[in-house]
Write a structure and sequence with these properties.
Family: Belongs to the NapB family.
Order of helices and strands: HHHH
Keywords: Electron transport, Heme, Iron, Metal-binding, Periplasm, Signal, Transport
Distance between the termini: 67 Å
Shape: extended
InterPro entries: Multihaem_cyt_sf, NapB
Largest sheet: none
Number of strands: 0
Function: Electron transfer subunit of the periplasmic nitrate reductase complex NapAB.
Pfam families: NapB
Number of helices: 4
Amino acid sequence: MNKFITLLTIFGVLTASALFAQDIATLRNGVEISKQEKSQPIPNPIKDDIKVGRNYPMQPPIIPHNIRDYQVDLNVNKCLSCHSRNRISESQATMVSVTHYMDRDGNFLAEVSPRRYFCTQCHVTQHDTKPLVENDFIDMQKLIAIRAEKAK
């Protein structure tokens, strides 16, 4: 009897999923899973070197320039040729955060920590494209200003 109830439940869930699946927004733009749509061209990266605001709390900063063909591997990190603390005076680039020079125990290191060495694990370039989803994030400083304005 338990197997029958389990099978009936699974069948019900699958049937309901199929009925509601048409209303779910996906990145496939309504194209069936069994069909292949022509790929959109890769958008161009924004290369204006203007810092972009964050879209959510604790978001790693976005890279405001093209990094195509940058080598980042065990032997070379092209990002650090401008962003390491001993190169920022000549490159005028933003220095990587001091947290990147700390090990997991909070001890400061002479070089970037191995766990923070591969920059593109967290940091991405911004592309000239429309957002896939709306973002209604409001920074804490803006919320404080809004509350102060309402209190007047």
